[in-house]
Amino acid sequence: MNTIDFEECLKDSPAYRNQLRQAVNHIDMLEDRLEQMFKMCNSVINNGKIFVQEFQKFLKSIFDARELFSTDEVAYKSLGKFGNYLREIQTLFSNLLEQTSHSLLRTLTRMLKEDIKKVKDQGKLFDRLSSDYDIALQKNADASKAKPHLCEDASKILTATRSCFGHTSIDYTYQINVLYNQHKVDLIELFLSYINFHKAFFHQGYELLSIDTEQDFNSITTELTRMRQENAQKQKILEKVHDTNQRRSSTPGDTTTCFPIKSILSSSHYARQLKYDDNRNDGISTDASLSVAKETLSRNPSQQSLSNITNTLTNGIEATKEGYLFKRSHNKFKTWNRRWFSIRNGQLLYMKRNSGNSINDNSQQQSSYSVMILDLRLCTIRASNDHDRRFVFEIISPNSTHLLQADSQIECDHWVNSLQLAISNLFKSPNNGNLHSFTLLPKPYVDDRSNSVLTAKNEIKQEMIKDKIDFVRSITGNDKCSDCDADGPEWASINLGILLCLNCCGAHRGLGVSLSKVRSLHMDTWDLETLIVMGELGNTVVNSIYEANLSNNVKKPSAETDALTRRSYIEAKYVQKAFLRSLPASNQIRSTTRTIKRWSVMKGPISTATLTNEHDDDGTSNSLKVNSRQLLTRRLTGVLENELTADSLSSIWNANIYLYEGARHRSVPTMLHALTLGADKNFLNEHDHGRTPLIQTILSRSVAAAEFLLINNAKINLADEDGKTPLHYATQLANKGRGPIILLLKRGADPLVKDRTGIDACSLSMVIGDPDVITWYRLIALHEQMKEEDADAEKTYISILDDPVYMKEIARTPSFS
Question: Where is the Arf-GAP domain (predicted)?
């Protein structure tokens, strides 16, 4: 299109009209091209924005994939750098799109919406005025001379219309010429700037990827070369392992065990493998380098004591194992289900095969497990031969017994050993004492910490204490004070077993706790064991001992007696023992006591062979030849074990033997009489294996007699000549009643004291197989470890032993009365 001539415009010649038609056609085509350009540019920008969004997702996937290689420093850092560089490129591309949108689209929009539209609007005005001008010309030509006024009107209209048309045509021609010339310049300038945008984009990208990254890319290339070499070596080793396992799986009866792949691929193993390649022609067997013979597998005894376990792991590191076992359910059908088991953090966990998550997703994998054993330290692991199924072992916890079955005897032994080693390491771990005491309790005890349960238990306990106090009050003679016969005594001397009034109580306090330990019946806290002792004595029984020789010349105080006289009488009675009954003859004590039938304890030390497996010459373990539950003989005897004859007893008769015989016969009054006569409460009877009176009370299973000696400061851990403490004997008799064990533990007995054969009460508890006893002993062991770091560590096991259920066991123990 050429520029329209204004001369032709003024003349409105056909040439002008022809040029005008060409210009209009050109403008229409220009508008179409610009609209198409605008649409395509807008599509490019929109697709670019979509590209940026997808590219951002692509970058996110790179960084997500990088997390899978967090343990590999080279791969982790390299992928991070690549992601950062690509992110910079994406930023540059986003800037290019933004510049294109602000420059190109804005200019095209202006050309279409403003410039071309303005020309077209002017063209529409030109066409309308051109039509009006033609009409005015026609009317002026048609005007008749006979009508001068019409001619004059037509002339005026023609003049006005010609003037408007002339101005409009000139403006229209001007705008067309300006549009034609200006748009050429605008388009050239527009695309020149657009090309400059791309030039800047590629230049910045070049600087980013050539100058700034040169050092990084060189280091990554070096590491990549090294990784390729290492991968080639690993591939060779994996091929050897694969071939070895293929041959092993095709060989029937081969029970060798492969080394873990992780250890094979370790750097220390590289040297051995490369050396193996060099010596391959020397006849070195691949199987020998990658497997362990069956005979070299250690097989620990299934009933091994915790203290005798040989710890093959580093101190403080828990033995871990994972694998499939059959688990017997606790429903009425007793079905066996195959589950995946794992030893982790002192717990035994299990889950179904299809419940697992990604290996790297530790948090989700942990949540897929169910807890079978909350704390392995409170459990006993041993083989179980009482079932038709083979390869079965049991886990005895404080709450229940779980039966598990392995696929072979070797696998069963491995699981038993791993669990026992885990328990041993947990006890030896230096961080063991940092655990909160509540975490050491089995789940029922943790749940019992709720206020409602504690309140209910306290109510039961207080009711038992109240009933026992009422029983003590009802004993003959206890309705009056033991020393002055005052009515309604409300105080007690727990080591003497008497009730006192307030005035006599003050005098007893002056005697000192070594002679009289005073306590209020309604203001002080009472133990059931102490009340049982009070129930064995009473004012009448005690006065028959302390006032046996009270003469008529000595007047017993009354409720109105002054304090000085009262104190003098009480000192004469309990300190000077002026009215004390003398030591009876040996035949008198034997005639007044009765023969008590009880379970006898097997003489001689328990052989360590019963606590460990015997091994044949080939290193394989045999089943126990002696059932551990038969360690305690259950032979009912009509007379006491080692009971002395009348002649032999009379030859050694003294206050100590008197005390010993009283303990043997569960007679608390006899023991009180012996102590008042000066008997040694820690007397070692050389005629009966050096046993103490406290040991005799345990053998007779009398909580009252044992508590009486402990109240009077008997040594609770004093052992006999075989090194056995009272707790050893109480543990051996656990199947006949756990009351003595509860008493000894509450009074501070140590279950870790070993006898001369190296066996402690904790080991004996595993032989007995009582879950509660095992739990008590292990809680005490944990408490001892906690005391090493915190001397004020709470004795959590005391609250367990104070449970009303166990208090009832104490109340059921036999007594002399």
Answer: 466-589
Structure tokens at 29: 């085509």
Q: What is residue 408's DSSP assignment? A: S
Kindly indicate the confidence band of residue 462, based on its pLDDT and cuts at 50, 70 and 90.
confident
Number of separate helices (H) and strands (E) present in the chain: 30, 14
Phi (first) and psi of residue 111, to 5 degrees: -65, -40
368 and 227 fall within a common domain = no
Q: Considering the entire predicted model, what is its pTM?
A: 0.47
Q: Is 311 helix (H, G, I), strand (E, B) or coil?
A: coil
599 and 566 housed in the same domain:
no
Residues 187 and 243 in one domain: no
Q: What is the distance between the terminal CA atoms of the chain, rounded to a whole angstrom?
A: 135
Please give the torsion angle defined by the CA atoms of residues 269, 273, 274 and 278, in that order, rounded to the nearest 10 degrees: 150
Q: Are residues 502 and 363 both part of a single domain?
A: no
430: number of Cβ within 10 Å: 11
Assess whether pLDDT exceeds 70 at residue 591.
Answer: no
Q: Which two tokens stand for residue 708?
A: 């009486």
Cα–Cα distance, 418 to 409 (Å, whole number): 14
The alpha-helical segments, DSSP class H, found in 677-813 are 693-699, 703-711, 726-732, 739-746, 761-768, 771-789, 796-801, 804-811
298: in domain: no
In sequence order, the 6+-apart residues with CB closer than 8 A to the CB of 253 are none
Sign of the C-alpha dihedral, residues 77, 80, 84, 90? positive
- Own/partner pairs for 636-645, CB < 8 Å, 24+ apart? 636/597, 636/599, 637/597, 637/598, 637/600, 638/595, 638/597, 639/595, 640/595, 640/596, 640/598, 640/664, 641/600, 641/601, 641/603, 641/699, 642/688, 642/689, 644/687
Q: DSSP letter for 236, please.
A: H
Q: Flag whether 451 is in a domain.
A: no
Cross-strand pairs, 467: none
Where is average pLDDT lowest: 89-98, 289-298, 377-386, 682-691? 289-298
Section 547-562 average pLDDT? 86
Listed residue (223, 232, 273) closest to 72, CA to CA: 223
Domain that holds residue 600: 586-616+636-811
Count of residues in the chain: 817
Among 429, 445, 462, identify where a domain stops.
429
**705 and 663 Cβ atoms separated by less than 8 Å:** yes
Distance CA 166, CA 291 (A): 109
Task: Identify whether residues 801 and 709 lie together within a single domain.
Answer: yes
Lowest-pLDDT choice from 186-190, 623-627, 681-685: 623-627
- Is residue 78 domain-shared with residue 183, that is, in the same domain? yes
Greatest Cα pair distance, the chain, in angstroms, is 185
Contact 635, 600 (CB under 8 A): yes
Q: Does 98 reside within a domain?
A: yes
Tokens standing for residue 744: 């000894």
Q: Is the pLDDT of residue 725 over 90?
A: yes
| Confidence check: pLDDT of 15 > 50 | yes
Shortest CA distance to 608 belongs to which of 754, 481, 475, 735?
754
Residue 381, strand partner residues? 395
- Considering the domain architecture, whether residues 524 and 642 belong to the same structural domain is answered as no
Q: Give me the phi and psi of 189, to 5 degrees please.
A: -65, -40
Which residue, among 315, 367, 360, has the nearest Cα to 344 in the 3D structure? Answer: 367
| CA dihedral for 197, 203, 205, 207, sign (positive or negative) | negative
Question: Do residues 201 and 223 share a domain?
Answer: no
569 within 8 A of 547, measured Cβ to Cβ: no
The total domain count for the chain is: 5
Taking alpha carbons only, the member of 40, 197, 46, 49 closest to residue 108 is 40
Last residue of a domain, one of 373, 403, 429: 429
255-312 tens-digit pLDDT: 444 444 444 444 444 444 444 444 444 443 333 333 333 333 333 333 334 344 333 3
Output phi, psi for 641, to 5 deg: -65, 135
